[in-house]
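Minutes, structural biology subgroup

Action item carried over from last meeting: produce the structure token record for Short-chain dehydrogenase/reductase SDR (Salinisphaera hydrothermalis). EB confirmed the sequence was re-checked against the source entry. Recorded below for completeness.
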Amino acid sequence: MTDKHILIQGAGRGLGLALARRVLTDATTRVTATARDPEASEALVGLRDEYGTDRLELVALDITDESSIATARASVGERHGRLDLMITCAGLLHDDARDLWPEKKLSDLNPGHLATSFSVNAIGPVLMIKHFHDLMTHGDRAVIASISARVGSISDNGYGGWYGYRASKAAQNQFTRTAAIELSRRAKQVICVGLHPGTVDTGLSAPFQKRLPEGQLQTPDQAASHLLGVIAQLRIEDTGQLFDWAGKPIAP
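Output recorded by EB:
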């Protein structure tokens, strides 16, 4: 087999879009890019026009709606039958429309906001694994990579705050680890990991960039390049772990 089939969830903008651009430069790669409304992303539609529908397929998928995930899975399975790499880029840190911002203290906690954070950051990614993993149990090397965050590490939490984001990303990491253990029992060539991209210049990090040390902020293309490099080097023994953009493991 020479052609690889890659699915990127959340490819309409930011890091997901940069990942799609990067993987498409490999002529042996076919890509399925998902977003809630992919046709509304001018950049994603432009990529499809550039590479053609044989190389890039756009599929609607709402990470917070399991029926949408299941519908997308059926569509992808019918057209392709297998995946070699799935990258889930779901992430919610703030949402002006919902007045949702990282909590600084206990009194900021809002049950509805916490539920929203868990829905996007933890539940959505594991539902992606639930519905798409069978396309990756074909016997060849396959990678499930969920974009996570260092702040999801409980042992690394030395500053507090950001309750919902920290906890939902910790839950995501636990889901990834648990799925990796299950999959390793029947699909030993599937590697299931979490990846921390660093601080990337996207809408998610935009309100929090002012105090960053010089050189710490990455462009989406830089982050995509780093992450794809990490993915390429993953071994079977790495399944279930969380790695940063430089390939260094992050303690749970």
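Discussion: The mean pLDDT is 94.
Next step: EB to file the record with the rest of the batch.
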